[in-house]
Specification:
Helix content: 25-40%
Distance between the termini: 54 Å
Radius of gyration: 24 Å
Number of helices: 17
Structural class: alpha+beta
Shape: globular
Strand content: 15-25%
Length: 617
């Protein structure tokens, strides 16, 4: 029941360089402080409070825990333990762990059971807390009993996310391998949604909220076979590729994602993509690569991590969007109907919880789990899977990677090992003119080195990438350079909103609780108002890369670490009918209305306002 590749724990692998700094920014921002400022975490029913007792605390812990341990931050570790201790305290003798009354269990959406069981596994892998295996065992055993005897049945989110429980089932089977675990796995799949029945729904956008076109469900879903096939004793069929190809063809974005605001929205660059979906698709790609070893999933992971994810969080990571747009000329609250199909007028603002609070809690997992994917192993074979600055240190070997990738394509590995190992390095498909230790080498998907014990080895590696003009729908183009997508940046001024909202929330016991959320600097809301032109087309298909310093903010919106010089001309692009601050889906005219200008394109993740899909004039 072994995956193709295994993940190191947060004790064994650590971020370095720009990646460590990015995690520090996250810890200093909203992720590291939600338990201090946000009622749904600070006062959650999971720890005996009166606020939300379903997905938000588990979502937050899913990222906060590995973040704390990757950074060796003792204060954050202590705060994570405080939450875990409280959650364990409220576990019932039956094994039930979620905060609801026993009589409400049949109507409680057990997506929360699936999620908290996964979080407990994450905590064990980070902390080694020996209480956790027994807790997970009892949670899953109780879940099986309730499903088996018909007390509960999968519905709503639990039905559409059934495979999330397999992270904990795999953890339990590795320790006990009792028959009821196999039965639990079977029941979950039988009662869970079969997404292969849904693909026709994905081919045409609908202005209708549906679970089977919900973008976060679909981002999670892609890993279902990877995490379940061996437990279910089924063959692996690469269903993810088949499903992913449909999603990308009919809903794909230039940044490696697919649209969903909140449900699938086609290929238009002015539709949105929910932040939760980006974080979840990153995790799915990590699991798919570990399961299959297929490099396409590692490349897709990089594209998401270096483009779609940083684009939708502020430089200081105190605020985020709910929806990002590929061509996003402003982030201003809609005075009337939003352009989004099923989301509200503030979904693209940068704030504490624009539109809805799920992304506030769930975006926290993206960077920490990405950092845990840098090095993978299988027996005595170690793979540099995602070549970002990091190290792995076990009793037998210590491997470090010094690099500024994806902003530079040079790499320095050092390997100190007490025992013989095989060390492999994944080479991306876009790599050109590969050199290894100063010598030209033929392109290969992986480099392999057999390293003897009690040795010190250094490996110098470099390659180049061509600047490509990628075709997009409706005759538009996108610039790509290695793993990075580039956009025409739009300068902006921020308008800050500090305020408090009050809402009465009905409770299952018939009472009402008052939900009060304060937006106060730095966790307030912002509109981004454009101050420079955006109505351009490319006047040439010749581009030039400009390398700059990687600053203390790796994906800085003011000081990007690499730019691309491009020649452009203004055109009469126009705005979408009925909207002042939404560019038209396609330009009204391709006839230039200005002289040729040279501009600098920014990495998509650095350009908070941007035009990413432009015509070639």
């Amino acid at each position: 029941m072994n995956n193709f590749w295994n993940f190191y724990t947060a004790k064994e692998t650590k971020p370095a360089g720009w990646l460590k700094r990015q995690l520090e920014i996250q810890a200093e921002g909203l992720s590291g402080n939600l338990d201090k400022v946000w009622p749904d975490v600070r006062d959650s029913a999971w720890i005996g409070g009166k606020e939300e007792g379903w997905e938000r605390v588990p979502y937050w812990l899913d990222g906060f825990i590995p973040l704390a341990y990757l950074l060796d931050n003792e204060d954050m570790k202590s705060r994570a333990k405080k939450y875990i201790d409280a959650i364990l305290t409220y576990q019932q003798p039956s094994g039930w762990i979620c905060p609801c009354r026993e009589e409400d269990i049949p109507t409680y959406d057990t997506w929360a059971v699936q999620l908290i069981s996964k979080v407990l596994v994450v905590y064990y892998e980070c902390s080694g807390d020996e209480r956790i295996p027994d807790v997970v065992y009892r949670v899953l055993k109780n879940y099986w009993e309730l499903l088996k005897n018909g007390t509960i049945h999968l519905f709503c989110w639990g039905e559409y996310r059934w495979f999330e429980a397999f992270i904990a089932i795999r953890f339990a089977k590795a320790r006990w391998n009792e028959p009821w675990l196999d039965d639990l796995a079977r029941i979950l799949k039988e009662q869970g949604k079969d997404y292969r029945e849904c693909t026709e729904l994905w081919k045409k956008p609908m202005d209708e909220w549906r679970l089977d076109t919900h973008v976060v469900n679909l981002a999670m879903m892609l890993k279902y076979e990877a995490v379940s096939y061996d437990i279910l004793n089924e063959p692996y069929t690469d269903a993810a590729e088949e499903l992913f190809s449909v999603l990308r063809e009919y809903n794909g974005t230039a940044a490696g994602m697919f649209t969903g605001d909140e449900c699938l929205s086609g290929t238009s660059p002015i539709q949105g993509t929910e932040l939760c979906a980006v974080a979840e698709l990153m995790y799915s790609c990590e699991q798919l690569f570990a399961c299959t070893g297929d490099p396409k999933w590692a490349e897709r992971l990089e594209e998401l991590a270096f483009n779609a994810f940083p684009a939708t969080v502020s430089d200081d990571m105190w605020t985020h969007q709910y929806d990002q747009m590929t061509n996003q000329i402003a982030c201003i609250r809609f005075p009337g109907n939003p352009i989004f199909r099923t989301n509200g007028p503030d979904a693209h603002l940068f704030g504490l919880e624009p539109n809805y609070g799920c992304c506030t809690a769930n975006h926290n997992q993206a960077w920490p789990k990405f950092a845990l994917s840098a090095f993978l192993y299988n027996g005595d074979t170690i793979l540099s899977a995602i070549p970002v600055p990091s190290e792995v240190h076990t009793e037998d070997y210590h491997i470090t990677l010094t690099t500024e990738y994806p902003f530079r394509n040079t790499f320095c590995y050092t390997v100190d090992t007490h025992k013989p190992i095989t060390f492999r390095i994944r080479i991306p498909s876009f790599a050109k003119r590969l050199t290894v230790n100063g010598k030209a080498a033929e392109y290969t998907k992986e480099l392999e080195f057999r390293i003897e014990g009690n040795t010190h080895t250094e490996i110098q590696l470099s390659y180049e990438a061509d600047i490509l003009l990628i075709d997009r729908p409706n005759g538009l183009k996108t610039v790509k350079f290695g793993s990075l997508i580039f956009s025409l940046p739009i300068a902006y001024e921020k308008k800050m909103y500090e305020y408090t909202t009050k809402q009465e929330i009905p409770k299952s016991d018939g009472t009402v609780s008052e939900h009060i959320v304060e937006r106060k600097f730095p966790y307030c809301d912002y509109e981004y108002i454009p101050t420079t032109p955006w109505n351009y087309g490319y006047a040439s298909d010749t581009f030039e890369a400009v390398q700059k310093d990687v600053t203390d903010i790796p994906f800085s919106s003011e000081h990007p670490p690499v730019t691309i010089r491009a020649k452009v001309k203004k055109i009469d692009w126009g705005t979408e009918e009925g909207y002042e601050y939404i560019c038209a889906k396609v330009p009204k005219s391709l006839t230039p209305i200005g002289e040729e200008e040279e501009i600098e394109l920014y990495p998509y993740g650095c350009a908070k306002l941007r035009m990413t899909e432009l015509p070639l004039l």
